[in-house]
Amino acid sequence: MKLITRNTDYALRALCLIAKCKGKIVSVSELTLKLRVPQPFLRKILQVLNGKGILRSLRGQGGGFTLAKEPAKIFITDIMRIFQGALRLNECFLRKLACPHKKTCLLRKKITGIERYVLRELNSITLESLLE
After folding, report:
1. Which CATH number applies to 6-131?
2. Would you list the domain boundaries of the chain?
3. Which pLDDT score, from 0 to 100, does residue 97 have?
4. How many CB atoms lie within 10 A of CB 78?
5. Distance (Å, rounded) from C-alpha 63 to C-alpha 91?
C-alpha cells in the first residue's frame, strides 16, 4: 500500500517549487527541468490543480502557473484527495461484500484508530510547512 501516489508526489513537489517563487509565474518547462518529470505528465497534473483552484494558470508568452491560495491554506490532504480520493486504511478485504463481523471485528477497530491518527497528522501538514 502506498500512502502517497506518484501523482500526489509530483503535485506536491511542483507546488513547493511554485511556492518558493513567491508569486512569480513559473513555466511548465522550468518545472519539468527542475523536477525531472516528463512534461506531458506534469502538464496534466498542473491542469488538474488549476481546475481544482489550487493553481492559477496564465497562457501565452511568459505564461505558466502561480499559486491560487496561500501556502498555509493548502493542506497535503487536499492534494491527496484530488489525486487519490479519500484515504482509507480500514477497507475490508471483502470490499463490497457484506461482512458478518463488520461491527465486531477487532482488527477493523484497531485499524480505524490508526487511520484517525494518520489523518489527524496529515491534516496538520500544509504546503507552507513543507517549505521550511
Report:
1. 1.10.10.10
2. 6-131
3. 59
4. 17
5. 43
